Amino acid sequence: MEHLTLCVLSQDSTDIFVDLTKFATDCDCNIINTWFHRAGDQTITTLNIEGSWNEIAKFETHLEHIEENYNASIIFGRTEITPEKKNALPYTVYITGLNRKGTLHQVTKFFEIHGAILNEIYSDVNYTRKTQTPILSISLHITLPAESSIAEFREQFFLFCDNLNLDGMLEVEKN
Q1: Cα distance between residue 50 and residue 64, in whole Å
Q2: How far apart are the first and last CA of the chain?
Q3: What percentage of residues in the chain have a pLDDT greater than 70?
Q4: Exposed, middle or buried: residue 116 (CB in 10 Å: 0-12, 13-18, 19+)?
Q5: Does position 85 have pLDDT exceeding 80, yes or no?
Q6: Residues 8, 44 contacting (CB under 8 angstroms)
């Protein structure tokens, strides 16, 4: 089984998403996962598709047509899906605090320094109802090496959050 990952930036329209999923179906490809997001007057779409070599090749030939039709930018490439590491420790992390420049960088740098693999990151800024204070919320899915000392990592994480005046939570991912 072959895999293709693509990222699409286009003008605000759900039509492009509908066409991408249609072309995948028409080419007998299976969409493994997808993400669609409106950002101002643009939409961002990511797709991970699987199929035989010729099914993926057939799908790739449609991408130029989609780029032209929707005045879109598409980046794509064949990829290999790697299985989750058996001896790894998966965690979900939630961090909330006042929105300040550089906070997301400091958070991702913390996990990099501690050898965590960043699998997924989602961040958003919302404003409090009464004072309109900007609050940053970050959700991460990370994987720690199995040999990590959880107690030491947890302590370092909470000290890090305290130093930046952030509220943080670590939660083991469960099936």
Answers
A1: 19
A2: 26
A3: 98
A4: buried
A5: no
A6: yes
Give the sheet arrangement for strand 167-172, strand by strand: 117-127, 134-145, 88-98, 167-172
Q: Is 65 helix (H, G, I), strand (E, B) or coil?
A: helix
Evaluate whether 90 touches 161 at the Cβ level (below 8 Å).
Answer: no
**β-sheet bridge partners, residue 38:** 43
At 145, give phi and psi (nearest 5°). Answer: -60, 145
3 state SS of 160: helix
Instruction: Check residue 30 and give its pLDDT.
Output: 96
DSSP secondary structure code for residue 139 in this structure: E
Token reading at 98: 């006042």
The answer to whether the CB of 108 falls within 8 A of the CB of 95 is: no
Cα 36 to Cα 83: distance, rounded to the nearest angstrom? 24
The DSSP H or E segment spanning 23 is: helix 15-26
Residues comprising the chain, all counted? 175
* Average pLDDT of span 144-170: 96
